Request: fold
Amino acid sequence: MTKAFPEIKNVYCVGRNYRLHAEELGNAVPDHPMLFMKPSHAVVAAEGETITLPGTSGEVHYEVEVVLHIGRSYEPGISVNELVDSMALGIDLTLRSVQDGLKAKGHPWLAAKGFLNSAPIGEFRPFPGVEETAAVPFSLNINGSQVQQGRMVDMIFSPQTIVDFVAEHYGLGAGDLIFTGTPAGVGPVHDGDQFELFWGNETCGSLSVSLDNGRAEVSVGAGESAGTP
Ligand code: ZN
Reply:
């Protein structure tokens, strides 16, 4: 069961906040924080559960990110250390080919970023402060192998810059979450993958993936049903 999983209001996400990740997708490094949102319904606890993800809309990519939980109303001049009461690691799951199609048309990203279960989040812990978290490596393992690792100090836009920007343009208050962007190493999710999140050497979340291939809706008797257990 979820332990102390906070009530969630707005879910803000920062795109392209690590130089190597922007480059791996061929994107320019932005000159101000690039924000998008997920519905709060996208959030699911990553505490050992199996979560179901879309399996028929192209690749679902994982993006491990530090998630900040806002504990009080923003006021001009407030520091991140006063504003953020807890933190976790989360995965900004992304339908990458859908996103590429939306980008090409100039359409909003909701279909690529906001689908159900697209925001699994591990255990929240008290936020120890910007200085204490800056150099701690956070990472994602899939099936026992590390696929991504980052450090908050390598963010293009610092947590303070992000909260000030979000608050000024969109508002920020208790219960809001901010996904702060992913380091390099994103890649596709496969059916049955086991994800494990690490803050330093400590496990702080896990989940397994079930890709929904829509089998219940496809024709019966196609002759290839027994390929996977
Ligand atoms: Zn992301």
